[in-house]
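Standup notes
- DV: blocked on the single-chain target, sequence here:
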Amino acid sequence: MLDVVRERAPVFSPRRDPPPPGNLLIRYITAHAKAFIGRMPVEAVAQEWWPDDQAFGMLVRATSTPAQLSQAGWAQELGRRVVNDALGVLFPASASAALFKISPSLTFANEAAIAVPGFATGTSGRTSNFVAERQPIPVFQPAVSGATLLPYKLAGIVVATREMIESSNAEALITDLVVQAFGRSLDEVLFDSNPAQAMRPAGLRYGVAAITPTATASDAWGNFISDVSKLADAVAPVAGNAPIAFIGSAGRAMRARILGLDDEEGVNVYGSNAVINDFLCVATAALVSAVGVPDVEVNKVATVTLDDAPANDPTTPVSPFRSLWQTDAFGIKCRWPISWTIRDSRGFAWMTPTGW
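- DV (later): unblocked, structure below
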């Protein structure tokens, strides 16, 4: 009698590739919106939608020990990662975010202001010298004029429908909303010429006169080299070995890249929709910023005025307005602590090129 050996067919399971890495800021906002709709804890949303994202899971999980951003090994590095992600998501629409990534960055805790040291000029900035044996060591008193970094916030409300938030594309859709809400607004304030006010820092162009461009006929290449040299020479006294950044419109930034400007070591070229005909130059060592973790709130019962410059009294909606409850929509309010200062006016220069 022959025994029939039946081999068990192999069992194949569909391959599940790990999800692509996401932006912590966007997932932070998306999780809050989904948690609000589903009436569930934020950490439960994180586990359901992004179970493999360990950094995000740590960000929203319940903790038994208070986290401190000043404590290394617990929350300090995580806080920095969230801030970096908050800046990174704006790169497609904001040259400001790119500048803040490569310039000195500080952190507000409970301080009302941060005193930022400036740059000294000439020998008054020396704090030491070579001294021969048995000779007296000289004493220097540097005359350093610095700047003060004050806390400000960039805030906005974006309206999303229930279908957008519940969709599997919620992360991509909220990314688009955040970029549109914050990207250009940040550039428009950073690169303008307005003084500091109660609600905003001073623009980089405030009090800085334009440099006269070169406009030699039929020599675009020569004009370009001359203009870039003028701008670089203007910020050279405080640039040191830190990167120098040039900012122009998308078209002018592209021309500068084609001409090889960003091929040089320590030189960065960024495009911004907030810069039209001008070309700006920043010594990143002179630009100091403080960027915090955005605070997110979600609401579905409010009536909001659909205006980017609403009246001072929001209790009385002014047309056009929208009832979130009636239209089954949600208002996502983001408050982003962000501030900057230029600690030496020599760290910024600009012109309006006419010859290239």
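- Follow-up: The chain has one domain: 20-117+139-308+316-356.
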